[in-house]
């Protein structure tokens, strides 16, 4: 006869294992294995933080507004910085068309604040250090040990940048979300060197 206490303990173990596996499965093993959500989907919700550490959600930020969501790897990434420069130039036109732009990265709030100040980025940057948003969009992947070691050789410490020990990143992506929360344009690429021309964002604003 199985005692009730043992059954409770076993059930708790099953629940914990299920949650853990679900969390792990939302981070792909490599960039090419990610499965980003696509055009036509509804905006998923996730908790992110501003540069001061205050929490908000994607749906709160985008409620009733056409929103351009840009996912990038971090302020330490030179290609992300170059792309940010292109977006800064396009930002006035995006705003004039009635849309807002929101950038999201795995940087900690502190790293996010430094990046925004250093590069004079006029649109808001948000910290997704726990990868809540990256996972919700199907963009998160695990960085392999060899790449982590190579980055450290370049003076890049992913754990220091994010304040977390997951050593995971999102693949770069851009989403245009209409005022109803529907994704009307989606672009992502497992190759972090390939970035979307801001002209394509403007062309797809509703």
Task: Draw up the topology in text.
Layout (H helix, E strand, L loop, with lengths): L3 H22 L21 E3 L5 E3 H5 L3 E6 L6 H19 L2 E7 L3 H10 L6 E3 L4 H5 L3 E3 L2 H9 L4 H5 L5 E3 L2 E5 L5 E6 L9 H6 L3
Parallel strand pairs: 3-4, 4-5
Antiparallel strand pairs: 1-2, 3-8, 6-7, 8-9
What's the number of helices? 8
CATH superfamily: Glutaredoxin
Strand order of the largest sheet: 5-4-3-8-9
Under the CATH scheme, which architecture would be assigned?
Answer: 3-Layer(aba) Sandwich
Show unreliable segments: 1-25
What would you report as the Rg, rounded to the nearest angstrom? 18 Å
Count of extended strands: 9
> How would a textbook summarize the main sheet?
5 strands, mixed
Broad shape: globular
Number of domains: 1
Helical content band: 25-40%
Question: In CATH terms, what is the fold-level topology?
Answer: Glutaredoxin
**CATH class, please?**
Alpha Beta
User: How big a fraction of the residues is strand?
Assistant: 15-25%
Residue-averaged pLDDT: 89
Q: CA-to-CA gap between the ends?
A: 64 Å
Q: Name the assembly state.
A: single chain
Give the SSE string.
HEEHEHEHEHEHHEEEH
- Structural class by secondary-structure content: alpha/beta
């Amino acid at each position: 006869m199985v005692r009730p206490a043992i059954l409770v303990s076993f059930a708790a173990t099953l629940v914990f294992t299920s949650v853990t596996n679900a969390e792990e499965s939302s981070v792909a093993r490599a960039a090419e294995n990610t499965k980003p959500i696509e055009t036509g989907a509804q905006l998923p919700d996730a908790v992110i933080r501003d540069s001061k550490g205050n929490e908000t959600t994607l749906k709160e930020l985008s409620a009733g507004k056409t929103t351009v969501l840009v996912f990038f790897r971090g302020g330490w990434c030179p290609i992300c910085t170059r792309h940010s420069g292109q977006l800064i130039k396009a930002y006035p036109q995006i705003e004039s068309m009635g849309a807002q732009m929101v950038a999201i990265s795995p940087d900690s709030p502190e790293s996010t604040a430094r990046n925004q100040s250093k590069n004079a980025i006029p649109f808001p940057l948000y910290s997704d250090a726990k990868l809540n948003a990256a996972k919700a969009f199907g963009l998160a992947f695990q960085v392999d040990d060899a790449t982590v070691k190579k980055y450290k050789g370049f003076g890049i410490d992913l754990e220091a940048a994010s304040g977390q020990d997951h050593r995971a990143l999102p693949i770069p992506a851009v989403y245009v979300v209409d005022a109803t929360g529907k994704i009307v344009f989606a672009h992502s690429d497992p190759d972090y060197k390939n970035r979307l021309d801001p002209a394509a964002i403007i062309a797809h604003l509703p």
